[in-house]
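Hypothesis: this fold can be encoded by more than one sequence.
Test: take the structure tokens below, design a sequence, compare later.
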């Protein structure tokens, strides 16, 4: 059996994602300006970190989980029992689930604010983040090997974090004004 998981794998994956996102930001810098380039790259990075934290097993030694012993459905016990703590934060898992999606909400707004259709695209983006959270929970249900639990409370907490982040993003667009940071083309002489 191949052992895969733990904090080291999550941190290694985050480092790889950070390098890839930095390269993306540098590619987008010239055509979009620094605010949009780093917002798009940051949003991609936030989505990668979310996947790493939620889909990588918490330990490399998760063992074998027999198909007949795994859960067949998601827990619909809203606000039900969640682990008391998590190895990253001392607070409860519900707080982590909320905080995990805040950067994605912020960066979604900063990414889309440069276009006039942002008032339509941001709500659609929030729906996309909700769908991403639901897809993660579905994956946790189907892949018993990662030893994660599918819980509708996680989706609620994730969406709450994304909405809080979008609210913070609305404040930050006033500060950064992404529509003003466009690259000026050099005169060809």
């Amino acid at each position: 059996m191949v052992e895969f998981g733990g904090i080291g794998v999550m941190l290694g994956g985050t480092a790889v994602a950070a390098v890839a996102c930095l390269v993306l930001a540098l590619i987008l810098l010239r055509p979009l300006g620094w605010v949009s380039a780093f917002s798009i790259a940051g949003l991609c990075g936030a989505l990668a970190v979310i996947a790493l934290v939620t889909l990588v097993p918490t330990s490399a030694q998760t063992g074998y989980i027999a198909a007949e012993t795994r859960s067949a459905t998601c827990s619909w016990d809203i606000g039900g029992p969640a682990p008391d703590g998590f190895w990253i934060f001392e607070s409860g898992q519900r707080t982590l689930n909320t905080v995990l999606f805040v950067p994605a909400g912020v960066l979604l707004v900063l990414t889309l604010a440069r276009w006039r259709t942002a008032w339509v695209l941001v709500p659609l983006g929030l729906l996309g983040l909700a769908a991403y959270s639901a897809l993660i929970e579905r994956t946790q249900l189907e892949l018993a090997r990662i030893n994660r639990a599918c819980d509708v409370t996680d989706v609620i907490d994730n969406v709450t974090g994304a909405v809080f982040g979008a609210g913070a993003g609305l404040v930050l667009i006033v500060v950064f004004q992404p529509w003003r940071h466009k690259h000026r083309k050099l005169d060809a002489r």
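The first helix runs from residue 7 to 32. Residues 7-180 form one domain.
Hypothesis status: open.
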